[in-house]
Specification:
single chain, 264 residues, alpha/beta, TIM Barrel, eight-stranded parallel sheet, globular
């Protein structure tokens, strides 16, 4: 599809009547958030505070750098909130595969329940689809039962065709989720990218394979978050509105969702 057609389709979806109030959407979305901090200035205190907020809001996961995996795992002990870590050369993914796998393995050993990895964007852009797929497959084999979210970094992929191709490669090589962005690129999550990704997920769902979606990067307000919920609901249905198949990567957003959800 051309970008103009994608934008028209999104506009049509968002213009339709919806079965939830904004307050109800915010309440549901709060429990889909991967509460995230991925800064070079992260400290133990900051991560511990984030874990306390996650427990208070009952988010889906806390997502951090591998260094803090064991701290998060310990802080969330006794809850249903999952420990998620970026690993495998985040955010550029410009490392040899052996180094990526070592980092993933160490992170899992330190307590991560979920791994968020980034595809080799340069390889995809130069048409080396085998390398892209082989790396995802190798990480997923290492993850085993642990959930793998594959970050496409859609803002760097340039065309709808590349986003669709990356989505298909990720799913065919074991991704449990496909995720838009690291939050470190100049363009992060967009409705257009998520629309393309949801269409790919829908095609695989018709073949009996259910894959999750995670918009992430730059989603910090209720106004920017709600359209993603509407797209997922409209294109994939009620089954996807749970943490098994829908996450939102965010830091500031959780506060806004909580404030909206408790309004009288």
């Amino acid at each position: 599809m051309k970008m103009e057609e994608i934008q028209s389709a999104i506009k049509d979806i968002l213009s339709k009547a919806f079965p939830f109030t904004e307050k109800e959407i915010c309440s549901r979305m709060l429990h889909l958030v991967d509460l995230t901090t991925l800064d070079g200035t992260d400290t133990k205190e900051k991560v511990e505070d984030l874990c306390q907020k996650a427990v208070r809001y009952q988010t889906a996961a806390v997502c951090v750098y591998p260094y803090y995996a064991s701290l998060v795992k310990h802080s969330l002990e006794g809850t249903n909130i999952r420990t998620a870590c970026v690993a495998g050369g985040f955010p550029a993914s410009q490392l040899p595969l052996s180094v990526k796998l070592y980092e993933v393995e160490q992170t899992l050993n330190d307590g991560a329940d979920e791994i968020d990895m980034v595809i080799s964007q340069g390889a995809l852009l130069e048409g080396d689809y085998k390398r892209v797929g082989d790396e995802i497959d190798a990480v997923k084999r290492l993850c085993g039962k642990h959930r793998l979210k594959v970050i496409l970094e859609t803002g760097n992929l340039r065309t709808p065709e590349n986003i669709e191709k990356a989505s298909r490669i990720a799913i065919e090589n074991g991704a449990d989720f496909i995720k838009t962005s690291t939050g470190k690129a100049s363009v992060s999550a967009t409705l257009e990218a998520v629309y393309i990704m949801l269409n790919v997920i829908k095609k695989y769902e018709s073949q009996g394979l259910k894959v999750g979606i995670k918009p992430a990067g730059g989603i910090s307000t209720v106004a920017s978050a709600v359209p993603y919920f509407k797209l997922v609901w409209s294109m994939l249905g009620r089954e996807w509105i749970n943490p098994l198949y829908f996450r939102i990567g965010a830091s500031r957003l959780a506060d806004a969702l909580y404030d909206e959800s408790i309004k009288q």
